[in-house]
Design goal:
The structure holds two protein chains of two kinds. By secondary structure, chain A is mainly beta. Chain A has strands spanning about 5, 10-15, 20-25, 30-40, 45-50, 55-60, 60-65, 70-75, 85-95, 100, 105-109. In chain B, strands 2, 4, 5, 6, 9, 10 and 11 form a seven-stranded mixed β-sheet that branches. Classes of the chains: A mainly beta, B mainly beta.
């Protein structure tokens, strides 16, 4: 059964820092991996989707990488801003989407 | 324009009652999902429908019955509500069920259900 782990569970950084969030999964036979952000009391916003044949995706200050063989993905956030404060979730498929527990990020002004 | 919408946003009810949550997507997607996020913020898939047909049922109690009247709607009916059903329920949709980029999932804002 696919298990998804996110480390760290919480992270606090000063504004302007570059940071990396980690996601690992136990079964490398995935279709894709998707990163989301969730603001308190809100739904999930899709950030990036990496297909199994891809190694990375970029959107603005965000860069997500995928290493299927080692069962890992990272989300790199450049020049962090207070508005980036949220919980970041990674999720993998095949079949049902399996979520990690998330990393709660706080960016201090 | 809201892509995936859910009603109601909040639902407070007594144990034993029956309630429904509605979901609609205007993205033209073929696949819709229901997820449950518990008090520990862990998200789990409950159901998935593709073209109005059930394709995933993750061992959810049969008190939960999804209904898809058309591709744009997936409603969730819950019978005999229990305290443990208190959670946030999210609806989502994607173009299809494969792993391609077009099958990115988009989520609704969630329905916070509280059972007293």
């Amino acid at each position: 059964k696919q298990e998804v782990t996110q480390i760290p569970a919480a992270l606090s950084v000063p504004e302007g820092e570059n940071l990396v969030l980690n996601c690992s999964f136990t079964d490398s036979a995935i279709y894709n991996l998707q990163w989301f952000r969730q603001d308190p009391g809100k739904g999930l916003t899709s950030l990036l989707l990496i297909q199994s044949s891809q190694r990375e995706q970029t959107s603005g200050r965000l860069n997500a990488s995928l290493d299927k063989s080692s069962g890992r993905s990272t989300l790199y956030i450049a020049a962090s801003q207070p508005g980036d404060s949220a919980t970041y979730l990674c999720a993998v498929r095949p079949g049902s989407m399996r979520f990690g527990a998330g990393t709660r990020l706080t960016v201090k002004p | 324009d809201t892509a995936v919408s859910q009603t109601p946003k909040y639902l407070v009810t007594q144990m034993g009652n029956d309630k429904s949550i509605k979901c609609e997507q205007n993205l033209g997607h073929d696949t819709m999902y229901w997820y449950k996020q518990d008090s520990k913020k862990f998200l789990k898939i409950m159901f998935s429908y593709n073209n109005k047909e059930l394709i995933i049922n993750e061992t959810v109690p049969n008190r939960f019955s999804p209904k898809s009247p058309d591709k744009a709607h997936l409603n969730l009916h819950i019978n005999s509500l229990e305290l443990g059903d208190s959670a946030v329920y999210f609806c989502a949709s994607s173009q299809g069920i494969g792993g391609g980029g077009a099958n990115e999932q988009f989520f609704g804002p969630g329905t916070r259900l509280t059972v007293l």
